[in-house]
Amino acid sequence: MLKSKCIIAIFICCFIARNALSQQEVSKYEMRWAIFHPFAAKKIKRLLPEAMLVYGQVKNGGILDTFESGGKLDAFRHVFTMALLSQTIKVRKLKKLGIAHEKGNRHHFYKGHQEFGERADSLACIMDLRNNELGFEIGCHNQLVTGNELKDLVITRIKAGNAWYLKRNAKNEYVSCEYIPINMENYGKKWFLPKCLIKTNE
Questions:
Q1: Where are the domains of the chain?
Q2: Higher pLDDT, 28 or 150
Q3: Helix axes of 72-85 and 91-110: crossing angle, nearest 10 degrees
Q4: Are 197 and 70 in contact (CB under 8 A)?
Q5: Which residues 6+ apart lie within 8 Å of 155 measured at CB?
Q6: How far apart are CA 54 and CA 13, in angstroms?
């Protein structure tokens, strides 16, 4: 039984890390989560291809923006994925997964790894966790709707300003809340950056 759980954990964690929430190697935190939640992990294996298919449609359709890291498209990925998963998986388990993923992001940050072409930072992780919460709310209150219906609900909520993303200027540079451009080269391996987290209707 333990061997079976470990096999499921390895497969699912890799699937989650590379196809849903990041492009980096699986973290030990996500591995632990899958070991202790093998049945939820099996459901995730079944549902993630649908989540990524819908995400690809939104990305290619230019419905929101083009930023897979820090943008409204990033917000959609987290909100929709968690909304879809929370239709059939208990939120408390998914919250633990989301936290494990962000712990993994910080661990990978110090190793110099990137997520969707950018390095993680403190505000990006806060953004992801807040957007996960919106996903839980939408999924729990819409358990019987189809994936396409769920997609439309998520997009509507994002456009209404119920999700979060990171502020940029007209040159697509990250800026502080005082609208000062952030030169990423000045921050080296600093985890805390003066970015600005704002609602998705701002």
A1: 49-199
A2: 150
A3: 140
A4: no
A5: 58, 63, 64, 76
A6: 20
Q: Following DSSP, what letter does each residue of 42-76 receive, concatenated?
A: HHHHHHHHHHHHHHHHHHHHTSS-S-TTTSHHHHH
Which amino acid, one-letter code, is at 191?
A: W
* 64: number of Cβ within 10 Å: 21
Contact 151, 97 (CB under 8 A): no
- Condensed to tens digits (0 to 9), the pLDDT of residues 59-112 reads 999 999 999 999 999 999 999 999 999 999 999 999 999 998 888 878 777 766
Residue 154: both structure tokens together:
């998520």
Write down the pTM of the prediction.
0.86
Instruction: Please state at what angle helix 38-61 crosses helix 28-36, rounded to 10 degrees.
Output: 130
The sign one gets for the Cα dihedral 162, 49, 101, 165 is negative
Question: How many Å separate Cα 164 from the centre of its chain?
Answer: 11
